[in-house]
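Our platform keeps sequence and structure together, in a single record for each protein. This encoding replaces a full spatial description with a residue-level series of whole-number codes. We quote a single record here, exactly as it is kept in our systems:
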Amino acid sequence: MVNTSWFQDGDFVGQYGVETSSLKPIGANPQDDFNAVAATTLQLLRTQIINAFGAISRLIIGCDNVKRPWNVKKIEYQYLRASDEMRFLTDGGNNPWVIENIAVDEATIEDIVR
């Protein structure tokens, strides 16, 4: 396998440069890749390398970079009417947490079940 910085997403072909190499997914699985984006962004904020605006941009670009290679799309459940804020990132939603790392309270479960 050749290690290259070129990627193709449909008709779009691009090249990652040195300045964006830290935004590439690590390639373990979608949730680990999302967590890695958040962890590196937090570290850069703590060391004051980026500010809040840079962190927001980094999170948006990083999450998009994870969704493309893993082909993450919104999963439509017939029996579940959950909003995008309730769906996990790996299901195409906006919620960055998964069941393994969040304590789900009764109000959340009620909103999902309704």
